[in-house]
Amino acid sequence: MLIQEYFKSREKILLSAMDEYLEPKDQYPPEIHGAMRYSVFTEGKRLRPILMFAAYEMLIGRKNIGRLKRLLPAACALEFIHTASLIHDDLPSVDNSSERRGQPTCHVKFGEATAILAGDALITRAIEILADIKQPKLALECIQILTRAVSTRGMIGGQAVDIISAKKKVNITTLRYIHLKKTGALLQAAMELACAFDNAEENVRLTLGNFAINIGLSYQIVDDILDEVGSFEVLGKNPGEDARNQKATYPAFIGLEKSKKEALKLLRDSHNLIKNMPNNDVLIEFVDMIRQRLP
Questions:
Q1: Residue 242: pLDDT over 70
Q2: Residues 120, 121, 126, 127, CA torsion sign
């Protein structure tokens, strides 16, 4: 598949850039820098930054890894913030997860207090990186996009509603809100950042924003399904955590079969949004990749 080679090549430059943007693990104080590096460099899909690369290369009309250098601050910032959200999600006071990406979670390895600080430090490092972009107008736009995605109107808001909804009966509107914000907000930011670097027209921004909303929701529904019927090898963590934590999920709310149908509808909508855009092959394959994760 094209997407496998694409992800592999783009991940390589992303990993190199993240290594440069993070302090060495023995830099004083070593506990916090070690925890940050441990969490960032455990195995991960790197979906958000690589999808940003794919959207940008689609917009400029060709795949050119050299042209991605200017996007690296935003790509690293996206991945740092996503990693921070995972560190905080895994904490005993939230999901109480002991494994992430097949390894002990940050708080298990470094302690709860250090894990909280590591997440906070990754978020502030992300903003610092964006502020250093040499074009002030672009730097400000990137900061606005990312902080909006992280705010109570985005990822943090989704996480907050997820926490307060645990052990409660929620309606489908609340469940949709949780998924759109927790997962969709950073995916939408990835598309918005690609558009910002290309100075894309408003209709393109709206199309890619809607694409991100659909794939974000479909991806989370698939994750909900896999948490119920998947395996450790697929998830990189023990399945069944949502049920143990009495979290609101699509399978718990509407059942497995209806959840699968909803995910497939969202994926069809995602495909239709970009099917007529030139150079869309990577994003189209990404939609297919999500579909293939369905059990």
A1: no
A2: positive
Query: In a 3-state reduction of DSSP, which class is residue 97?
Result: coil
Is there a contact between 26 and 105 (Cβ–Cβ < 8 Å)?
no
Domain covering 2-293 in this structure, CATH number: 1.10.600.10
Closest C-alpha to 141, from 216, 81, 77: 77
Rounded CA-CA distance 284/295 in Å is 20
In total, the chain counts a number of residues equal to: 295
User: Among 31-35, 66-70, 215-219, 229-233, which is the least confidently predicted range?
Assistant: 229-233
Nearest to 119 by CA among 90, 149, 158: 90
Helix ranges, 132-201 (H):
136-150, 155-165, 172-179, 185-198
Question: Quick one: DSSP state of residue 168?
Answer: S
Between CA 184 and CA 72, with CA 222 as vertex, the angle to 5 degrees is: 40
pTM metric for this prediction: 0.90
- The answer to whether 117 and 124 have CB atoms below 8 angstroms apart is no
Q: Is the preceding peptide bond at 295 cis, omega within 30 degrees of 0?
A: no
In whole angstroms, what is the distance from residue 226 CA to residue 239 CA? 7
Structure tokens at 161: 């509603």
Looking at beta carbons, which pairs linking 226-234 to residues 24 or more positions away fall under 8 Å? 226/293, 226/295, 228/256, 229/256, 229/295, 230/295, 232/102, 234/293
